[in-house]
Amino acid sequence: MEIPKYIDTIPKSDKIYRLLWRITSLFLFKPFSLPIFNGWRIFLLKIFGAKIGNHCVIHASIELPSPKNLTLGSYSALAPQVKLHFGKTIIGNKVTVSQRTYLCSATHETTSINTPFVSGTIVIKDFAWIAAEAFIMSNVTIGEGAIVGARAAVFKDVDDWTIVGGNPAKFIKKRIIYDNQ
């Protein structure tokens, strides 16, 4: 069987955009890691197309190859060493994405021998919490108020106000809120 030629499906304009962001990030984003520079980091992300709400916290050590694909609601946080992929990531209000979480919003087409790149979307709704080192796969929605446990691997949608954990992530229990603080 002859090995087919790889077909690159990523537009050249997107590659140039990501290169410009990578250079900017290297010199103007990552070195400014102190909390007082949070506004500066958000400003840079917005220049590169990110949609970010008010009162967010974004650590300098995040890996974000394409800021234009990030939407982040108000009072949300991306903790240290969070990794985002090339696809769209839509995060609601009052969401915490904890340290070393991987939001894998893109994948490859498995029905082709060339396995071309396929961009997807991850949606994390309001009041959710993604605990440390979790993995969220492309085209998954994390429901409102849901909690994804530490080191969980999520490949399917998570219902509102539930807690999941494990690999693959499974339902643990309903999340019940006793107060509004």
From TrEMBL:
Which InterPro entries does this UniProt record tie to the protein? Answer: Hexapep_transf_CS (IPR018357), Trans_hexapeptide_repeat (IPR050179), Trimer_LpxA-like_sf (IPR011004)
Keywords, comma-separated and alphabetical: Repeat, Transferase
Keyword Repeat tagged:
yes
For this UniProt entry, the molecular function terms from Gene Ontology, in alphabetical order, are: transferase activity
Q: Which family does it belong to?
A: Belongs to the transferase hexapeptide repeat family.
Which protein are we looking at? Answer: Colanic acid biosynthesis acetyltransferase
The uppermost taxa in this organism's lineage are:
Bacteria, Pseudomonadati, Bacteroidota, Flavobacteriia, Flavobacteriales
